[in-house]
Amino acid sequence: xxxxxxxxxxxxxxxxxxxxxxxxxxxxxxxxxxxxxxxxxxxxxxxxxxxxxxxxxxxxxxxxxxxxxxxxxxxxxxxxxxxxxxxxxxxxxxxxxxxxxxxxxxxxx
Length: 109
Fold this sequence. Notes:
The chain has about 110 residues and is mainly alpha-helical. The protein has four helices and no strands. The chain has helices at about 1-10, 20-35, 45-65, 70-95.
């Protein structure tokens, strides 16, 4: 049974024998890099870059579902890109427009 599933995966029109598999697989590197950037301070994040990551992720994740054959790998990587981009944008907006109030230090300390 596992052999049949492996053969079906290998022969799928969006399987490992095609660019339709490898392009989204390597695109996971962008999402992984964006997750690694979660530890960066928000002041070094870029609005244009994260906007492009978030918007392109939303657009292309939809595209992966309307093409024939459906490309789940393409949709999932782009969904992950949109989520990480939106998270980074929210961090940047929170930092730029909603600064945390600093506690007043009592004099004499």
